[in-house]
Design a protein that fits this description.
Layout lengths: L2 E5 L2 E4 L4 E8 L7 E7 L6 E6 L5 E3 L7 E6 L4 E6 L8 E8 L2 H6 L5 E2 L3 E6 L1
Length: 123
């Protein structure tokens, strides 16, 4: 059974840091592009960052220089290190997996998803 389980969410003050983790099971983690998305009420889920099987990364403009995505294939775990957090970063953060990074961003209906973890940044 394919499963993605996020953790690390919580409340943090503006300017603070937080690290999210996503543990994958049920498939060959190293063969998949992995990513983080986020969603706020009333808005569409948006891509935040992705990391390809070769380690190549992509970030949405608003988090460049503040967030770092990484993966540990030996632990089947994806990370998102978030720093300089701002209230506009408040959202439910979802881990996603797809065989192709391009489709991860553009055809999200086909992604594998975790259940999400809430991050709340207070000013």
């Amino acid at each position: 059974q394919v499963k993605l389980v996020e953790s690390g969410g919580g409340s943090v003050e503006a300017g603070g840091t937080r690290r999210l983790s996503c543990v994958a099971s049920g498939y060959v983690f190293g063969d998949y592009c992995m990513g983080w998305f986020r969603q706020t009420p009333g808005k569409e889920r948006e891509g935040v960052a992705s990391i390809a099987t070769n380690g190549g990364t992509r970030y949405t403009e608003s988090v460049k220089g503040r967030f770092t995505i990484s993966r540990d294939n030996s632990k089947n775990t994806l990370y998102l290190q978030m720093s300089s957090l701002q209230p506009e970063d408040t959202a439910v953060y979802y881990c996603a997996a797809r065989s192709n990074c391009g489709r991860l961003w553009s055809a999200t209906m086909g992604n594998l998803w975790g259940q999400g973890t809430q991050v709340t940044v207070s000013s």
